[in-house]
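Severity: low
Component: inverse-folding endpoint
Summary: output formatting inconsistent between runs
Steps to reproduce: submit the following structure tokens with default settings.
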């Protein structure tokens, strides 16, 4: 019989989870995993490389061992785990640290105002004083723009890889990724499907960062940038339209407007793919999706995450004849609508 005696463990672990979170984020900031990917190091050498104080280093490294992010040999030599070596070494293409760098620089502080956001419903980030909308406030600083766009690749990469392979791309010739950011989804689709021609659509500030990324993957002949504001103009025409982490940035009228514009730009039998941390229909399981929605409370003026059933309803209201839901990586799913 399962033990039903109440225990404080889960309460304390969650209440103090920021200790573990900040330890990992500081390790990424210090480029610890990038350093160890070059070669494993004993305590004093590793401490010297990172410029840490003697008082902090051993506890910091051993905490990362206990948390499962580092390994330590019986001789006291530290090395990455297979996961941290693959995903947190800055020099590897699989690096996902962009989102965690942004979490460290921005979200960690903004989330300290969560209680105020819960009371007021107001964002708590750079647009907190209400003078500039989110993307204008974010993009006013070129370093922040670059960090944000790379962060998007970090959070989306696992699902992007699956979308590029799971969807029946052989039935289509063209696609447009709306709000493409650095362009990781568009790049992965093009790389996995050599017959396709793609468009990355986003605000003009994004162009050089997208083009640099596409160039680095040698895909400039099949993947182009189209600049535009989706509030002001129609979406590009394509057989498939993708929207990753777009709908959750906005309130319901904008979500519906974007789905309608996608419908208008698609040919008959064309498809719209919407993906992000779609909340389970019963709103009990996907804690990450629900916390992402609170992140939208912190980051945007009216954005929120939603269930697959919500999204399918909006798609049918816009005229799509059929929808389906497929699980992607971790907390992410895609909702596909066919015109
Ligand atoms: C949360 S990011 C999602 C990035 C990417 N699709 C992903 O899933 O990783 C939202 C994107 O929408 C773009 N965006 C915001 N407002 C826009 C607008 N009015 N017109 C076009 N793109 C916009 C932003 O520049 C940003 O790249």
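Observed output (run 2 of 3):
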């Amino acid at each position: 019989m399962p033990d039903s005696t109440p225990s404080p463990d889960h309460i304390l672990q969650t209440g103090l989870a920021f200790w573990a979170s900040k330890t990992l984020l500081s390790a990424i900031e210090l480029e610890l995993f990038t350093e160890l990917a070059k070669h494993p190091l004993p305590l004093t050498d590793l401490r010297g490389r990172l410029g840490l104080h003697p008082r902090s280093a051993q506890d910091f490294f051993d905490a990362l061992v206990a948390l499962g992010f580092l390994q330590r040999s019986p001789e006291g030599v530290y090395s990455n785990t297979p996961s941290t070596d693959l995903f947190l070494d800055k020099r590897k293409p699989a690096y996902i640290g962009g989102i965690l760098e942004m979490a460290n620089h921005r979200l960690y502080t903004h989330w300290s105002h969560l209680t105020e956001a819960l009371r007021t419903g107001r964002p708590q980030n750079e647009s907190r004083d209400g003078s500039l909308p989110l993307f204008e406030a974010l993009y006013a600083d070129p370093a922040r723009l670059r960090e944000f766009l790379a962060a998007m690749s970090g959070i989306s990469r696992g699902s992007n890889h699956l979308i590029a392979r799971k969807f029946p791309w052989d039935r289509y010739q063209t696609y447009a990724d709306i709000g493409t950011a650095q362009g990781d989804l568009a790049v992965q689709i093009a790389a996995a499907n050599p017959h396709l021609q793609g468009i990355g659509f986003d605000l003009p500030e994004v162009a050089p960062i997208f083009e640099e990324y596409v160039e680095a993957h040698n895909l400039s002949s099949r993947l182009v940038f189209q600049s535009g504001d989706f509030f002001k103009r129609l979406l590009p025409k394509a057989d498939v339209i993708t929207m990753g982490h777009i709908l959750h940035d906005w309130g319901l009228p904008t979500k519906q407007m974007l789905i309608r514009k996608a419908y208008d730009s698609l040919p008959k039998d064309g498809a719209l793919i919407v993906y992000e941390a779609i909340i389970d229909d019963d709103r009990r399981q996907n804690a990450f999706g629900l916390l992402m929605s609170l992140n939208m409370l912190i980051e945007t003026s009216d954005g929120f995450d939603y269930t697959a059933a919500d999204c399918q309803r909006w798609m049918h209201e816009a005229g799509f004849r059929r929808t389906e839901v497929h699980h992607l990586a971790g907390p992410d799913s895609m909702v596909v609508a066919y015109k």
